[in-house]
Structures are given as structure tokens and as C-alpha cells.
Amino acid sequence: xxxxxxxxxxxxxxxxxxxxxxxxxxxxxxxxxxxxxxxxxxxxxxxxxxxxxxxxxxxxxxxxxxxxxxxxxxxxxxxxxxxxxxxxxxxxxxxxxxxxxxxxxxxxxxxxxxxxxxxxxxxxxxxxxxxxxxxxxxxxxxxxxxxxxxxxxxxxxxxxxxxxxxxxxxxxxxxxxxxxxxxxxxxxxxxxxxxxxxxxxxxxxxxxxxxxxxxxxxxxxxxxxxxxxxxxxxxxxxxxxxxxxxxxxxxxxxxxxxxxxxxx
Length: 264
Hints:
This protein is mainly beta. The protein has a domain at 1-104: lipopolysaccharide transport protein A fold (Sandwich). 4% of the residues lie in helices and 64% in strands. The chain is built from one helix and 21 strands. It has one helix spanning 253-263; strands at residues 4-5, 13-14, 22-23, 25-28, 31-35, 40-51, 54-67, 73-87, 91-101, 106-110, 114-118, 123-126, 129-133, 138-149, 152-165, 171-185, 189-199, 204-215, 218-228, 233-237, 246-248. A six-stranded antiparallel β-barrel has the order 9-10-13-14-12-11. The protein has a two-stranded antiparallel ribbon with strand order 2-3. A hairpin with a 2-residue loop joins strand 6 (40-51) and strand 7 (54-67).
């Protein structure tokens, strides 16, 4: 379907705090409206906004702008609704609505669920919303949040992710703080706790407070634990509070048979 290119937009600039202005291109299948009094652009029908390799798709996109002292046009906010999709060189995202406040440097993605996926196939989903702060390189996911990598799953009510550049200069998830109703699931074990810290690149999760690990029917309880998502091994660690680790170990069927044979 042929796209409609708004020629006016090619003269506008997308400006963000402490960043050099760059061109913002907006397309749509049906129409693009310019509301001069409201200083607003509305793109309807498979709308697309792109800048510097980053692209936003939605059924409808609207953007508010203002005139800068040097006579240029700068966007303040952008709103997308319906089948929202975002693509960038390092990740993709999906949701029902998108709100981008350039003055706050805050991007809010809502959906059922909202979802982000990186180039490695690792995903984070949230039933409420995902908030991303580009300048802080930080994201907050709220509402039954799930981080999935290969066969391993990390769940919690809230996750706060911090990003860092890798050897290739691309941003990737470096550390994730997880809070409330935390549950780690691997092929070998399940662990629950009140909170923890997840290091995706190392494949390590450290759990804190009211920790319970179930590994092949063996139950360990304590206040601090480590789960290695690469090996599937979970272990309880000694805590600074001096609380003891308790465990219930399930006797294997082979051990039962051996014991029965020895009694004969």
C-alpha cells in the first residue's frame, strides 16, 4: 500500500535534551493532519515515525511540537495507539499504546502484555507497563513481569533494568533488580523469594529474604541464595543475619530399594 509522506515533516526536527537535532520522518496509509493552532500532527492508518534507525509503528500516531528560539520546530510529546511496535538496531517492542515525553526523556509502553525482545531472543513482558528512560539507560517493568531467556524464566511484580554498552558498543541488559513474588524457574529447579538481583550476561540470580529452593524434590530454605541459569544449579548462601539454612531432602527410589535389600 502506498505511503503518504508529509513533506512538511521533512523540515521539522526531532530534538531531545542534550542531543543534536535530527530529522523525524512520519508516514501513514490514510492521512496525516497538521493542526497549526494546537501545534499537533496526527498520522492515521499504519502510521510510521522513524529517526536514526529507530522506528515506531501504530494504527495512529500523534505528536505535539513547539517553535524554538532559532525558528526550528521541536517535538515535545508523541502518542501512539493500536498495534504499537518499535524497532531499533538492538531490540524490538510491542504494546497497545506508547507515550513518549521528550522533555522528561520518558517512554511508556502499555499492553496486555507490553513486550521487549533483544537480538538474542531474550524477552521481558509486563501486564501493566514498561517505562524506559533513554538518558538514564534504565527501564521499569510493572505488573506480573516475566524475563525469559532460553529455558529459564524469571518472574516478579516489578523489575528495574539497567543497561550498559557491550564490546560492540550496543546497549544490553546488564543488571535487573526484581521485587515481590519473585520466582525463578529452570529445567532443574524452582526458587522463590521476596526480592533479588538478576545479571543476564552472567546468567546469575541472587535471591534475598524468605528464599525457598525446590531442586528435584529437595527443599532448601534460607535468606540468601544463588541460582546459576547457565548450569541450573541453585545453592543457599550464609546470610549476614546469622539465620540458619533448613532443608528437606527427598529420598530417591533407588536409595529406597538399596536400603530394603540391605535389610533382607
